[in-house]
Write a structure and sequence with these properties.
454 residues; alpha/beta; Beta-lactamase; 2 domains; five-stranded antiparallel beta sheet; elongated
Length: 454
Amino acid sequence: MLTALLAIAGAVCWRPALYATGLWVDGGQPTVSQTLFEDPSASPSASQPARGSGVIASAPVATPTHTPDPKALAAALAKVPAKDMGTTSGVVLDAVSGELLWSSRPDAGQIPASTLKLLTCLTALDVLGPDKTFSTRVVQQGKGIVLVGGGDPYLASKPAKEYPFPATSADLAKKTAAALKKQGMSSVTLGYDESLFSGPNWHPSWPQGYHDQVTNLSALWIDKGKPDEKSAPSQTPAPTAATVFAAQLKANGITVSGKPTAAAAGADAAEVASVQSLPVSSLVQETLVHSDNAAAEVLLRQVGVATGNGGSFTGGAKGMQQRLTTLKAWDASTRIADGSGLSRNNRVSARVLGRALHLAAASPKLRPLLEGLPSAGVTGTLHLRFYTPASEPGRGWVNAKTGTLSKVSTLAGYTRTRQGGEVVFAFMSNNPKQEWNVRSWLDQMASTLVTCGC
């Protein structure tokens, strides 16, 4: 744990450094006072991070810690009311050794909802590496130029005001205009190339009503195809991006003749300008803390491209299976339909989710997976969770990815026990009778890991 950094994270003077290192991943000032959440430990250790800081810190390092007693842990979890919670399953593993400490139907394939993003992001980190970036380029073909999508999920139209500061088409337009002017050019035709990704841009199992949850997929979009926050995403994000880029070129003194058209950039086309995406480590953190469906689907396609299976749903799923099998984070029940977990055709066991989290805790290369997990009661999709008296002890302590669809609720992440042990966990419920109450059950199960005294 980066205890020293966490202790000073609230200081305004340290915000630029935190942004630069990626430790502040949700933006803004600390969400709540560090004293809001009562420490569940009678005598807090100096190695424990400041709770409620709003900062997603370094995840647990896989070093020897106290290992919880399985019998005591089972007794504590058995006390959590589970009536009408549907088909449940779960695992708790020692984060260091991967030892199975507790389980309930661990190998049952369940609909994971957005906890599937853990597997998508783990595979992206493993295949691509945490430092990999994706290039959005402009190349020259004759008297025209082509805007080439590189699969940057966070390419923005203008600079962000706060972390994570993604690449912008405004910067690309400025660089392109400067290069063209050096050649004495003031007017060009504009094409756009989104051919890096292939196959359907909408999964057949997704209801049309999901257009508010995910953009039609493309290797080229700006602001995820949304002209503003109030508008629905464009169903043709690549030509929409080219139109935005044409206007930005005009603002920089370059006229675009006619409308942008689809084009294939030649392999030998000269590069005019380019911008680089955030590194994969930051893409993963943003995807997880905000449960970003569109970004997860882009990462799935990047996995497909990198593994030679093609940038499609099927190519990405095949690449995931290959890598996760190698990592021993795949079993007979696993079924991957998409990268975000929106499809109800996905199946994942609690054991596989637990294994993925253990791998991330044990490997510096994969650890950004944990660093992006929302903090209970503080950030991201857990901001408004862990509010009941039984689950409050987990606020600021539990870091986890949520998963929610109709009749599906899941939670998977890590925490420190009161005795100082580091554990990873996955709890799942399909077809509960009480959909609202099942979230409280998940939160209480996770909080019990903190307070069990085992």
